[in-house]
Structures are given as C-alpha cells and as structure tokens.
Inverse folding.
C-alpha cells in the first residue's frame, strides 16, 4: 500500500484517464443518457427490496471515499477531440475491491460510449490502468467479470490476453436479477513487458 497515491491521471495517445469529479455531472449524465439502452443489460442493480442506485453526487462521494481508503481508483475515460479544448468523456473505468497484504489484487470494470465502441478505447484504457496497478502500485492480479452475453466486453479481454478462469453462477445483481458471469484475470508475471505495450504492438491497424 506504500505505493498508492491519488489523484492520478494516465495518458496514451489521445486517451486521458483522470479522476471523476463532481463538476463532471452534466457531461457524464448526458453521455449516460445517450447510452441508457446500450448499457442497461449490464447495469449493476440493488438486490434489496425497494433498493435503488445512488445518484451522481452519491456515487462520486462513495468513489472518492474508497479512493481515500486505497481500495479504489475511480476514473473517467476522456478523449482529445479536434476543435474541442478539453478532452470529452467517452466512458468510465473503476478499479475496485483493491486488496493489499498477501493478495495484492483488484477488480476492474468499465463502460464506453456506444458511438466510440470499436475504436480501441476500452482495451487501451484497461491496459493503461492494469500497467499502473502492476508497475506503480505493485498489485499482482487484475480480475474482470463479464456477463457471458456481453460480446463487446468479451472481445476486450480476448484482445488483451486475460485468462478465462471460468463460470460464476449468479455472481452479481445486474439489471434487476442475479446474473451469471465469466471471470477473467491476469497476473503481473504474464505481462513483464507491460500490457499496454503488448496491446499497442498487436492491435489491428
């Protein structure tokens, strides 16, 4: 835990991952609204009777508290766009459930604007953050859990070489029901050269 620091900004080409902020609310909400149907099948839900999801401010407050406790890295994925002064939000990526001690592991989740899907944004962002966690924080294992029906996310872990570790029945509450997931993982020994370097060298032109 000695190497943990926050806030952190990570960059690769036109992609910039930075901490989510309260003042991102308007832009974040607009992107999420445009993507509501695209994201709904994979959206986490509250299994408690009558339970709902936090609003934007509550979400950011919770993520900031987790970062302060060194258990999460809450990023928005932004991209530099010609003619636009500030990079625009094109998605979100959160490293959560960071466990230190003998485990040195974390779980990663993400979503990307449907209008920017297929442009290499998700795999680049995942590789960038995984390298940061392995090389700077000293974590040993990164895990990603994906619904078996979520083709775009499955392609991300396939492109990056995450190992399929098997099926987890009724693993997370998603879109109103307990949903099965497939678990993928990577350890630091598997990417000594860095995951981002490997992805950039092998990605399609």
């Amino acid at each position: 835990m000695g190497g943990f620091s926050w806030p952190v900004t990570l960059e690769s080409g036109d992609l910039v991952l930075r901490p989510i902020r309260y003042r991102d609310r308007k832009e974040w909400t607009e992107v999420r609204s445009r993507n509501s149907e695209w994201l709904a099948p994979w959206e986490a839900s509250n299994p408690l009777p009558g339970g709902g999801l936090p609003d934007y401010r509550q979400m950011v407050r919770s993520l900031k508290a987790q970062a302060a406790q060194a258990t999460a890295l809450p990023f928005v994925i932004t991209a530099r766009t010609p003619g636009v002064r500030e990079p625009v939000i094109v998605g979100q990526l959160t490293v959560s459930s960071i466990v230190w001690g003998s485990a040195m592991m974390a779980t990663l989740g993400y979503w990307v604007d449907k209008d920017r899907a297929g442009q290499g944004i998700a795999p680049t962002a995942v590789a960038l953050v995984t390298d940061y966690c392995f090389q700077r924080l000293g974590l040993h294992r990164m895990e990603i859990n994906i619904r078996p029906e979520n083709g775009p996310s499955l392609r991300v872990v396939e492109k990056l070489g995450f190992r399929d570790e098997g099926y987890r029945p009724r693993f997370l509450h998603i879109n109103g029901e307990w949903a099965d997931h497939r678990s993928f993982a990577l350890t630091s020994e598997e990417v000594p050269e860095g995951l981002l370097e490997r992805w950039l060298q092998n990605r399609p032109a």
